[in-house]
Each structure stands twice: as structure tokens, then as C-alpha cells.
Amino acid sequence: MKIHLFLLSALLLLFVCINTGLAAGNELSVANSDSEDPTDWLVEKLGANLPLDVEFVNSDGQTVILGDLIDRPTLVVPVYYNCRNVCNYLLGGLAKTLPEIKLEAGEAYRVVTISFDESETPELAAKSKQTFLTAMQGKYPAHAWDFLTGKDGNIRKVTDAAGYYYKKEGVDFLHPIAAFVVTGEGKVVRYLSGYRFLPLDVTMALVEASEDRIGIPIRKALEFCFSYDPEGRRYVFNLLRVSGTVILLTLGSFLTYLIISGRKKRS
Amino acid sequence: MSEPTTYTGFWQESPRPGILGWLLSTDHKRIGIMYLCCIIATFIVGACLGLAIRLELIAPGPTIMGAQTYNATFTVHGILMIFMFLIPSIPAAFGNLLLPIQIGARDVSFPKLNLISWYCYVIGAILAVTAIFSGGGAPDTGWTFYVPFSTQTTTNVNLAAFAAFMLGFSSILTGINFVTTIHRLRCKGMTWGRMPLFVWTLYATAWIQVLATPMIGITLVLMILERVFGAGLFDASRGGDPILFQHLFWIYSHPAVYIMILPGMGVVSEIIPTFARKPLFGYWAMAISSLGIAFAGSLVWAHHMYASGMSDMAVLIFSFLTFIVAIPSAIKVFNWITTLYKGSIEMAPPMLYALAFIFNFAIGGLGGLALGAAASDIHLHDTYFVVGHFHYVMFGGGGFALFAAMHYWLPKFTGRMYNHKAAMIGWALLFVGFNVTYMAMQAVGVMGMPRRYYDYLPEFTDLNVVATLGSWVMGAGLLIMFVNLWQGMRNGRRVGKNPWGATTLEWEVPSPPPMENFGEEDPVVTKGPYNFKGVVADEY
Q: With an 8 Å Cβ cutoff, are B251 and A18 in contact?
């Protein structure tokens, strides 16, 4: 039995070392792909806090404090409702993605669209909300997605805190196409770029933002299997780490079985 | 001799007659013999390619082939010798022949899986040969398949990589089988402390096979994805990393070096006590150092990559770990020598090969330290010193161990003895030719001759001529050895159970062993593996 214990511990050590080696090799590859940000319109301020005491008006015309909406993980989407191209793609993409997210909308997380055009009215916001809720064909609770308008000063406070910059040019705005996820305390945890988000990316970001609200084992497992690719700004399936772990666990249980079962009884 | 003179053991006893009795056999000895035939055939082809490479290098400029043919030749030489010869040589061929008998079992744990692994090997071999003659031509990447060249070359790399993938599968299946067999099927009294050293080294090897081989499978699949779909995994311009390939490749391929050498060490550990008539010195040190080599050897892969541009800290750590591997290896060498000390040494052919193994392995091992030290490696990297070094370890070690095993155990499995005088002449030519060839390569490498070129500067000519002449002597030695073994196995004098006076279990069954190895009764072991008290060699 002594030799068994020795073998077991030696092999366990080997597993650990190889796994560490795998992880190290993987980090090497990420470190080598430094990103070049082509634009200053979006400066990622991860960990920054949004001001939660500012006032906005929702699509029903009621005045709301931002902190009342952001009391759980929230996807914040800055757009303007009169936008004639990318904002609609962005919201349309969200309308496709949101029903596919497996978290409970309104409970586990919330979506808040903020117009950065101070001239826009709650009526316009309501129209926009109607459009996209219709597009979702009732698959999404209306209360989980707010469409806000507000005063320029208030808007700027929020967007500046998140590093999101825009500029009016004629009737249009120049602005980045991005959204960000904040925690219930308003802390920015992840940016999502582009106008089509994968459900997985949004889920991962929300899970990260939720901290304690979603079961920790699931969260840990997700974080282990998927790592954030800073250049592509998305979550990638960590093939090497996952396959390495699967191999080691399989072999570890194989060895444990062999040691426990011992020699075969001869008939 | 108690057997009748016509006794042929497992060669005749089979549920099916003829060729199907072999192709569908799950008997470990038959599968071992089939493996042996395949690897010897591979070796002969690979050796001819090696001789052609040496002939090309006898003078600067093209002599018998041009650059592209040369690239393909050394690539195919490497793929054949590594994946199809060295890796399965001792573990698959002699491991299958001996492992069950040495632990007192009637077969391996999963006999059918064993046959499947042989078929995986054959399929892999067929694919590899097909890759040479089809598609865009024989692969020209070197056996390491390094990116970015391997993702860009138009030669038939996909098929060759897939062949290596299949061969890896075969290796994993054999490993799983051996680990299970050693744990589950040891006979009564065969405790861990009574297992022959060959079994210990097969055990360590089998774990490397199951642990490391999946890595090469994944790596080669990623490379094929890169080639076929442009996945960008190893392409820096698309966010990938070419160094990642080197890490992944060597995470397998360095431990694979120990797949090749560890069972060879086991063979030598069997032969030395037998021909020194003494128990092996330091049994537990030898057993544990086998596991130690397997363990430490899994952590040193990046010492192949000092010149790749990885961080100095990584170089330092991997250099340190590399020196650690030298410790269990040196334990083995010292223990063999201590076993010989004051022994009653008999210079039979297997012993000569085993001693040559120690000599060659010591030179190769010391050269390995020169390469493991980062400062000297920067100068020696990608020179002929590296080529000389790994041939010393792989051929001088692994290859000679296989020849030792053939001279030691083939009489057991064929029941006939070869001509000793011819064996010694073959050995002498092989040993001298080997050292001339590869020592000249190491020397020309220190002078700065780079590897993997079909051409070289005029100042390297003399040593290259020496190396090529040496390769002819070596070729002559190989020829004599194979012809002598072949004739001996067919027409040699018959031998009894124990022609060498050895002590492990396989020498207590008839030569050749019967199906299921042991008669009605399972063996019961009551003593250690190297207890020579009262053991005498049969006359032949």
C-alpha cells in the first residue's frame, strides 16, 4: 500500500505541474497579442463607478434615479433613438440576443438603454421600446428593459464615467458602437463592442457582474472554461486548459480506480 | 530439453490457421511479433534514407539529390524513425512479448484493445507512406512540423500529421493496456518490489504515453485546422502565436524521448545482472528513478526552445529542470556499473549491446547537458551537434537497447540461437561505425555547421566525409546483424528454457512460450527478480 500512496502522490504532483505548465503556456500566447486601440472614442475604464444619483426619464414619462434601476447586474446601452443606422442594428441585435440569455430577465439582470441626445423625448423612447419589444414577439418581459432619456449634464456624467465619448455632427452623432455591463453597485466590469453580441458573451459578462447572486460553482466553471480575449474583446473557449484538465481528471480517476480495485481475483 | 524437437509454442497453437491466425490474434506474443516485424521493416527503410542523407552530405553541393528532395528525405527519415520505429520499438514489440509473462499473467488486460492498437499503428503507417507518394509531395517540414512553415508549405503535411495522430492513438491504447495489466494481473507473490526492472520502466513509459500523447494529437489537429481552415491559432498577424505551437509540440515530444529511452534502460537492467551473475545493484533506486525520469522529463520541454525568443526566466527554469533529469539518469548508469563490479562477467552478444548502450548513452547524456545549459545551447542550437547528440541517445541508446533485446529474447521466442561469432562481428562494426559517424557530427556541429541543409561550406568537408564513411561501416554492421538474427531464428540450434541462466519468469516457461504462457497452474512468485542462487544456464 505504501508504494501505492507514493505512486499516487507522485502522479498527482505531475498532474498539477503539467496543468500549471499548460496554463502558463496559454498566458504566454495572450501576453504576446497586445492590442492596438484604433479609436479614442471608447476608453475602457474597468472598475470605474457610474454615478447612481443622476436623474433620467423613462419611457412612461416618469423620473427615475439611475441607482433605482442599477440595483443588480445591468447591461447599459448608450444609443440615440433617432439614429438611422448602427444604433438600430445594435438594439435589433440585442432584441435577438436577449431572449437567448438563460438568466432570468428583470430578476438576475436588467438592460438599460440611455439616449445621449438630450433633445430626445420619452415619447420617442416609448416608440423605440415598442419597436424592439414587438421584434422580440413577447419573449421578453417589458419591465426588464428600460429606455431612458435625460439632460445633457446627467448623460455626460454617466458616459464620461464609463469612458464612452460621442460628438454631435449635424443631426447625427459620432459615437462608438458598444455597451457595457455594470454590477449592482454601478461598477463597470466588462465592455461589449460591435453591434451583434453573442448570448454567451453577454451571459459571461453578466455572470461576472453578479458576483454572489448566481451560484458560485457555475460561475467558477464558466470562468475556468472561458477566458477573456482583450484584443477581440470577447470570451473565448479555452480549448487548451479545458482539454488538459479533462485529460488529467480522466487519468487521475483511472489511476484511483486501479489503486482501489487492486489485483484481479483469479478464478 | 524437455520439449519434443518439433515444439513450436505459440507459433503453431492458434484457434485460427494461417495468416488470419495472426491478423485476428489477440495473443500478446503474436501481436508483439507483428509489431516487431513492422518496426524492423520501418527501421530498414529509415536507415536507407539515413544512409542516403549521409551520402548526399559526403561533399558540398548537390551530390545525389537537390534541396527539396533532401528536405523531404530527412523529414521522412525523422517521421519513420521517431513515430513508427523508436516510440513503438521496445514498448509495443518487446513490451507485448514480455510484460504479461514477466508478471505471471496469461495475457494483457485488454487483448482486443491490444489488437486494435496494432491496427491503429498499421493504419498510421499506411497513411504516412501514402503521404510520401501523394498530394503535393513528401512533407518537407522536418518531423517537428514547426509553424509557420508547416502551415504554408504545399507538400502533403496534412496526411503526414494525421498519420502521426493515428500512431499516437496506438501508443495511448498500448499505454492504457500496460498500466492496467501491471496493476491488475500480477500473479500471486508478484509484489511491486518483485517486479523485474523492465516492467517498472514499461510502467513509467505507459504513464507518459497516456499523459503526453493526447497533447500531440490535439496539437496536430490544431495545425491541420490552421492549414485547412486558416484558424489563425499560430499566426501572429491574426492574434495567434507561433511559439504556442512549439510549446504544445514539445510538451509531448520531449516526454516522448523518454518513451523511447526508458524501456531501453529496462532492457539493460535485465541483461546486466544476467551476464554479471549478480543481483541488480539498488533495485528500488532503479525503480524509483524510472518514475523520476518520467516525472521530471515531463517538465523540461521548453529546453528545445531557448532560441525561440521566450523569456529569460523561462529559459532559466527549464535549464534548471533539465539538469534535474540528469540525476535519475545518472543513478541508473552508476547502478549498472556497480552491478558489474566484481561480477562474473560474460561477454555474450546481448551484454555487448547493453554495454554499448551505457557507453553511447553516457556520451549522449553529457552532450545533453551541454545543450541543456542555456549559455552553450545558444551556440549549439540547430547545429550538427544537436543531430549527433540525439542520435547518440536515440540510436546509441534506444536503438542499441532494441538490438540488445533482440539478441537476448529472440532465442526465447523462436526457440533457436543465432551464431555468436557473427553477432559479435556485427556488433563491433555497428559500434565503431556508430561512434565514428555521430562523433564526427558532434565535432562538425561545434565548428558551426547548421543542420537541415543539403549543402555546407567547404571547411566542413573532412568531418562530413568521416561521418559518411562511418555510416557505411554502421550499415555493414546492421546488415550482418539482421542476416545473422534471421538465419539464427530460422535454422539456428535449438535452445531450452533458459539459455542465459536468467532469473525472471519468462525463463521458466518453454521456448517458445505456449499460448497463455503458463500451463494449468498459475505461477507463484516467492523471491525477488534477480536472485541467481541455484540458477544455471541450459546448454545449447
A: yes
Q: Which of A240, A242, A246, A257 to mutate to test the interface with B (most CBs of B within 10 A)?
A: A240
The half-sphere exposure of B483 on its side-chain side, counting CA atoms within 13 A, is 10
Domain regions of chain B by residue span: 10-508
| pLDDT tens digits, one per residue of B262-295 | 999 999 999 999 999 999 999 999 999 999 999 9
pTM here? 0.74
Query: Is A31 near chain B, with CB under 8 Å?
Result: no
* C-alpha gyration radius of chain A: 24
The three-class DSSP label of residue B33 is helix
The verdict on a CB contact (< 8 Å) between B298 and A14 is yes
Domain ranges of chain A: 2-27+240-260, 55-214
CA distance B241 to chain A (A): 6
On whether any CB of chain B is under 8 Å from the CB of A267, the answer is: no
**CA-atom Rg of chain B in angstroms:** 23
Nearest residue of chain A to residue B172 (CA atoms): A251
CATH architecture of A55-214: 3-Layer(aba) Sandwich (3.40)
Helical pair B384-393 and B349-372, crossing angle rounded to 10 deg: 140
Which residues pair with residue A88 across a beta bridge? none
Sheet containing strand A74-79, strands side by side: A145-148, A110-115, A74-79, A178-182, A188-193
One CATH from 1.10.10.10, 1.10.3210.10, 3.40.1110.10, 1.20.210.10 for B10-508: 1.20.210.10
CA distance B426 to B473: 10
A10/B295 touch (CB, cutoff 8 Å), yes or no? yes
Question: pLDDT (tens digit, 9 = 90+) per residue, A42-51?
Answer: 888 888 889 9
Judged by a CB distance cut-off of 8 A, whether residue A29 touches chain B is: yes
**CA–CA gap between residue B289 and residue B297 (Å, rounded):** 11
Beta strands in B459-533 (DSSP E): 493-494
H or E stretch covering B364:
helix B349-372
Contact A7 B251 (CB under 8 A): no
